Each structure stands twice: as structure tokens, then as C-alpha cells.
Amino acid sequence: MTAGSEEIVVSHLTKHYKTLRAVDDLSFTVHSGRVTGFLGPNGAGKTTTLRMLLGLVAPTAGSATFGGVRYADLEQPIRHVGAVLEASSAHKGRTGLNHLRMICTAAGLPWEAADEALARVGLTPAAKRKFKGYSLGMKQRLGIAAALLGDPRVLILDEPANGLDPEGIRWMRDLLKTLAAEGRTVLVSSHLLGEMQQLADDVVIIAAGRLIRQGPVDEVLGSMAGTAHVRVRTPQVAELTAALSEHRATVTPLPDGALLVTGLDPAAVGHAAFANSVELHELTGERADLEQVFLQLTAGKAGIR
Amino acid sequence: MKLVKAELFKIRSTSTWWVLGLITLALWAATLLTNWAGSSINAGVDPADQGLSPDQAEQIRVANEAVNVASNLYTSGQFFGVLMVMLLAAIVVTNEFFHQTATTTFLVTPRRTSVVLAKLIASTLLGIGFWLVTSLLNLIFVPLILNALDVGPQLGEPAIWRAIGLNGLAYVLWAVLGVGAGVLIRSQVGATIALSTGYVLGYFGASILFFLLTPRIGEWFSKLQVLVPPLASQLMVAGTELPGNPPRWVGAAVLIGYAAVAGGLGTWLMRRRDIA
């Protein structure tokens, strides 16, 4: 395989259930050497899309390929693509090590790969423990170990941060960044947007089964910069509200007593306060973050359909 | 081949197989004792005394022939043994859904037909294992019982070895049936309960039903008994042809038919199904 051939290309992918268009004519591309965040509200069709990518769910129309080849047509697929789909997908009465050995046997990999993968995710001490005794975080780590067994060029993870504690999330972030830096293609779905902002290089945002926006994180955020907010705190709420309203700004009281001002930058808010002799205790410009962009982009296309 | 190894490893690395194995051993012992008792009682019955129809009297007379008593004893444990093998085979499939390992399995091997075939072969091997163990135990203990009944071990009779061999075929076919049933009934608990009650009730229910209805409907109706899977597999291991019963190969053909349908349907369903 050449370096560029591990791109994931999703083309007009569609899945209709009886009354539901779970995924609707979805097209996007995932580039190698970068972490791509796959975002959408719950029920947007993220999991269905990933499962179609991996040949587990049959698409109604369209296709998904890895370097031009469908997953089911890959020779020894787990040597090309590693996937983590559900944290709890192992037999409860089987040990973690045996879970990985089982995969090695089916894939024709040596059993040593299981030991190495366990070590890489820090699970060696729990190798001989049964899966039912694992914490959610350990289950996630075992899932990642399974995905790494074949040393794949592409990694696909469905909500990998679920159930991880802050330290685990940090570990996951570092691991995925390292894997991408090694030139691998990394696709991570999530509804935890703050996490994505720190992790992803690119984002693909979907809602109600359709593509909303695709591009580098900075670009997607930048396109929404005009809607930044200013947060102010003052003992003279009425006076400031009146003064700002003259500048056509929108003022929304926040539960903690501060005000959220939309339509002016921090300098303009400060000047308006100064000109009207209003005392300020706090003045903060808030850049749009992925969370707000996401909520705006997906507003009205909620997950329950 | 590596898929069969993987399936066998899956079975080996969990405890279900030896739990069901122990249950099988216990039930085998109980069955052997029951068959012993049954043979002793039957041996004391003089068919002429009982006011039986000539057909029934003939059946008992033939069943009492040493070779048939022996073949019945040498295949002891079949009734529950094949049930356990079927359950294990079904669990080989339902486990994948119960523990959500189907995802992993099909990620490693997207060619699903190969996966189902590997499961069929692994379950079959498991069935053969169960058959080997029970047959070995029978070969150790049955000669003692036969000596106690004053009939000699009968191991020179080809009919005995044919019965033991066909018994092995029964174990294999029930394993295949189990895999097919596991695909059809994906719920682990559902499959276990449905298969065991279906098997036991099907056997006794069908026996009673045919017993009650045959006099009303006619003698031909009782020939249909062989269509009930557990009755078919019992027919297969009869030592010689029993009068009034269809020939043994019919039992085998019926079971092979069921196994082929279950295996084929299971493969077809597994290929089409979305793994979510």
C-alpha cells in the first residue's frame, strides 16, 4: 500500500430502515496522518455509519472504502483496519488475554501479539482476570488492545471516551495523537465536543443522517467566529442593559448573575459601560467553541426521529 | 482451519462446555441405570400373558432379543447427551450475540459463511467428543450389566457396532441442528429454554399424541412418528429393525434433512443480518 491509500472514502452512503432514514446520502473523506472527529447528536447515525464502513451493516445504497477497497474485500482486514465499537463486547467468563488470543487465532496472528497489545494499553496485570471483573475503563482499553492487534494503518473508534475517567481520557487522547503522528488514519466518533476540540485535526459533523459540515477544526470554528459572546458582571444590571440595547446588542441574564452579550466585541461593551459610568466586575470575551458551533449547526435536527 | 481452531478456543476458554459435560455425565449415569432396570423388567414379561395385540407382542419379543437389549444399553445417554450437544452448539452461536462478540468475530472475518461453517465444524467435533466419552463409558460398564442379565457382552454382533456408530451420527446431526437453532433464536436464554423444553416435551408429547391418535386415524399415522426429531434419533440406534417401525435409515434421513435445513437456513440468515 502507498502512503495515500489508507484514506477512508464514504460515498453516498445510505441506510433506510422501515420508516427511518438513519443515514441519508452521506459522503465524506477521512485523511491519513490526522485525527478526524466524527460528531453528531445521539441518534444522528454515527454508529450506523461506522458499522456500514466495517461491513457489519449492509448499506441500502452507496459505498465506503479503505484505499479503494471495501472492508469485506480486504485481505486479513484486521491488519489494515482496527475498530473499537462497544466497550462491553467480550465474553464475561473469558479472560482478557484469552479474548485477544481468540482474535489472534482467527486472524492467523501469533499469540505474542496479544501480550504486546495488552502491554501497550497497560492491562498486563489484568491479563488473567475474567472480563466481568473489568471496570468500564479497562474494557475500553481491552477494546483498543484488540484493535491494535494487527498493527493496522486505520483506526476507527466509536465513542471511546465513554466511561473513562479524566486520566483515562488523557491517556486515550495521547495514544490517538501518537497513532496519527505515525501516519495512521484515525476516525473517532463522539458527542463529547470539548474532548474533540483538544484531540481532532478534522471534524465531520452529521445530524439526522446527513452531513452538516466537514473540514479542519480551526476552519469550522472560524466560520462561526461572528457569533462570539461577551460575558460581563456588574452591580448596575438595568443601566448596562439599557446602554447595550442602544447598540443593538442582545443581553441575556445568566443564572449566576452575569450577563451574556451577543453582537458586540469586548472593547465595545467596555466602552459602552465606561460612557454610561457603569461599574464592571468582569468582562470576558468568549470565542465560539466547538460545542456552541455544534449546537448551532445541529439545532432543530435533534436525534429523536 | 484457523477459524475452526478459533471456535474451539472460544469453547475451551469459557466454562459452559464442562458444566454441560458434567450434567451429561450425571444424566448418562441415570439413563444407564434406568435402562438396566427397564431391561430387567422387560426380560420378565411374557408377551403372551398381557393381552397385547400381536404387533405389540412381536415388538416386545424382538426388543427382548439380547442384541437389542445390548444396543439399547450401549447407546445409553443418547437422549440427554444429544440435548446437551445441541444446547452447546446453540450457545456457540447465541454467545456471540449475548456477549456482543459477533461484532469482533465478523470484523476479524467478514466472510460470514466461513464463520458459520467453522461453528458447524467445531460443534460437530464437540458432538463427536461427547459421543466418544459416553460410548467409552458404555463399553466399560455395559458388559458388566449384560453379564448380570446373563446375556454376555454381545460385542461380537455387528449390529451393536452399527448402533454405536449411528449414535455418533446422531450426536453430529444434533450439533448441526443446534447451530441452526442458535441462529434462528438469537436470545441465549430463549434458545436454551426453547430447545430443552421443545426437545423433552416434543419427545413425550409426540409419543403420547401418536399413542392416542393412531387408533383413531389409522396405522399409517404412527409411521409419521419418525418425523419428530428425538424419535428419529432413537430409531437410528435400534439394534435391528423393530417390527411396526420404519427402517433405521429413515430416521437418519429425517435427521439429516432437519440438520441440512437448520444449517442452511442459519448460514443464509447470518449472511444477511445486520450486526448492530
From TrEMBL, chain A:
Gene3D superfamilies: P-loop containing nucleotide triphosphate hydrolases. The keyword Transport applies. Belongs to the ABC transporter superfamily. GO terms for molecular function: ATP binding; ATP hydrolysis activity. This is ABC transporter ATP-binding protein. Residues 8-233 form the ABC transporter domain. It comes from Actinoplanes nipponensis. InterPro entries: AAA+_ATPase, ABC_transporter-like_ATP-bd, ABC_transporter-like_CS, P-loop_NTPase. Keywords: ATP-binding, Nucleotide-binding, Transport. Pfam families: ABC_tran.
TrEMBL record, chain B:
Keywords: Membrane, Transmembrane, Transmembrane helix. Signal peptide: none annotated. The keyword Transmembrane helix applies. The chain crosses the membrane at residues 16-37, 79-99, 120-146, 166-185, 192-213, 249-270. This is ABC-2 family transporter protein.
